[in-house]
Please model this.
Amino acid sequence: MSLDKIEQQGLVLLGCGKMGSAMLAGWLAQGLPATSVWVLDPFPSDWLKATGVHINSGTPPAPAIVLIAVKPQMMGDALPAMTALGNSATVFLSVAAGTPISMFEDVLGAQSPIIRAMPNTPAAVGRGITAIVGNAHATSDDMDMADGLLRAVGQVVRLDDEGQMDAVTAVSGSGPAYVFHLIETLAAAGEAEGLPADLALALAKATVGGAGQLAEDADEDPTQLRVNVTSPNGTTQAALDVLMNDTDGFPTLLRRAVKAAADRSKELGA
Model:
């Protein structure tokens, strides 16, 4: 990404918890000078203090971007401190779950360029995927700047409209928890079949991690990859007959789960 504008005008990071720290580490690794970053966080970590960024020392007069990474429940206390930067060219990029663009417009001013993003926790290891959407005042250059910053922790996709964000939240935002639960239950099933607990867990973790990497890297789609593993009337087919059951298998269960998450996201954003 081009860092020129951010280096010259500065970047403000509002909140530096796990997600904020992961992004900051990625930016610094890509060459963003620590002196171009201002962090506002009531409880700065020892790691943050050692980075050389400005910590709780105000903000530059006209930062290129303010990245809002505080928890939604802390938004009411943290965001008003940014109102002086609203209705200007400063871009506000939010990674706060369940917080609609309209709320930021109400607090920061309707003319503010605002971009809403939904990252997920694999960002902590540089393997995240983030969906972004901007308001009417976010220009293509603004979107490119946000895109470049977020690519420090993984892939970025752009949405057609904010209405898609609830489904994104349900699929990729909450999705890592579904995968972690798959690992838990796969390991437990292996243990039930006679494997030692530590061995069952090691097999489950490596299998899910490796299959995910293969799904991302392979030219074939996941359907073909599944077919490739499945011998007619073999062991995999026996398991898939259970998992792909239309009544109580993965298709029905995951549709229900994703819908529940999307519905809850809509409730939280209302």
